[in-house]
């Protein structure tokens, strides 16, 4: 789930370097073949009773259940609740992570104040904090949002901080020679220079955010995707569980490609270099 | 130009007597001797044990084109960085009057800003973008104003960097081997361009280079930095554009090369 630290640019270049396939559909089909075979085998196993439904529902059953859940409004409702948790938690965590990185990155005093603290907190296992969070925040929305937020803070903080500190010192000299004011230097040199690394942090933090949400929703939820899944477990509804998992996966993929899109737009100065 | 005067006056500055000669330059080409833009006295800079600059004295007059030669590692960039105000660790008297612009050895374009924005960065002008565009057109890059720096060729990037320095209309232009990465053809074009722009904007120029011909073809005065001091000075009062096969330049070339520690056999 959590996004690996991969330089997207490099991966793009690798893709572009491949010779163009004359019939792209043929290539796509080749890649789809093995998953399709698995699904078909899975369906056969289910239909013949080899794979009992209390262990895993059949693909067909899962599809019909998904349609049902959507039509009855159960799934949309759960999605709204979960998305809200993710959005609030992510926003709070991102603001804190980037804000703290700016404080630590832009001044020595800030670094000495903020960095040791965050390095210490980073060592704590995120999910190990759940019992404390329950004691502190009860079992309502707060501990769930807090867990997501906390998971988001660290990747964004670490990457943005490293990004700021990694900005080429020669450009700092340039700013000095051009007589840029400090604010202008931060706006034109430091922040854009840190952006590529911040976006890496963004992808990592989104990965952690979904993971934190899934775990948080296992505890005492009375609404949302996690609740839907837990509820289904009690009634051995593996079909509903799988639908929930697929929805989680889709959201993970969606936000990841959203960040890629953002990367492509924000780092177009780099892309133009790579593709030329 | 007065033909009676020697066109090239050369003096080694290691002895006090010849040093005093250069204190009163015999430049007859300018009506009044302008005030110095740069005055450096007894500048020293040490890195650890190494004394890279060991009492440099230097004056650059308003509108004067000075070339600074020196072997690699002789401290040319160190001196230029002091003049640019980038080195707080140097000791000695340094006075720089007026505004300063720098073109570094590598173009140092900000990669995430398009060329026009790079040239306009930090520019105090009524219309920075218009001024930047005009400067880009001057260096022949008008069409590339919307390009990303990483897509430019070495020569184009250097010209953009030059435009960024020139657009500030500085009183002093510091150029740190800005042409060394260019191919011979581009270099000729850029030399012409620099002389042209110098003629029009008239800043004092300190051109750091290790190319003797470049120094002779462009500058009013050629200095050699050696063992931490300005060890040699040659005044070149030839009209521009100069030809490298000019009799006086051939003589000057071998003088300068000797000063730089290169011995030429078979040349006169
Ligand atoms: N920041 C620095 N720290 C230590 N040594 C330096 C530093 N800057 C320059 N030097 C040394 O000073 C000498 C002169 O360097 P530099 O001025 O760059 O030479 P040049 O530009 O003439 O080739 C070199 O030996 C270099 O290693
Ligand atoms: Mg140098």
What does this entry look like structurally?
Chain B: InterPro entries: AAA+_ATPase, ABC_transporter-like_ATP-bd, ABC_transporter-like_CS, ABC_transporter_ATP-bind, P-loop_NTPase. Chain B: GO terms for molecular function: ATP binding; ATP hydrolysis activity. Chain B: Residues 12-26 have a biased composition (Polar residues). Chain B: Residues 38-252 form the ABC transporter domain. Chain B: Keywords: ATP-binding, Cell membrane, Membrane, Nucleotide-binding, Translocase, Transport. Chain A: Belongs to the binding-protein-dependent transport system permease family. The complex is a heterodimer of chains A (276) and B (268). By secondary structure, chain A is mainly α. Chain A has one domain (60-269): MetI-like fold, CATH 1.10.3720.10. Chain A is 80% helix and 0% strand. Chain A has helices spanning 8-17, 24-47, 59-71, 74-106, 108-122, 130-137, 141-165, 169-177, 182-218, 225-234, 238-266, 268-275. The radius of gyration of chain A is 23 Å and the shape is globular. The model of chain A is unreliable at 1-16 (pLDDT under 50). Chain B has 268 residues and is of the alpha/beta class. Chain B has one domain (11-113, 169-259): Rossmann fold. Chain B contains eight helices and ten strands. Chain B has helices at 16-23, 76-83, 115-120, 128-138, 154-166, 184-201, 212-218, 247-259; strands at 8-12, 36-47, 50-61, 65-69, 91-96, 100-103, 172-176, 204-208, 221-226, 229-236. In chain B, the strands form two sheets. Chain B has a seven-stranded mixed sheet with strand order 1-10-9-4-8-7-6, sandwiched between helices. The longest helix of chain B is centred in the C-terminal third of the chain and has 18 residues, at 184-201. The radius of gyration of chain B is 19 Å and the shape is globular.
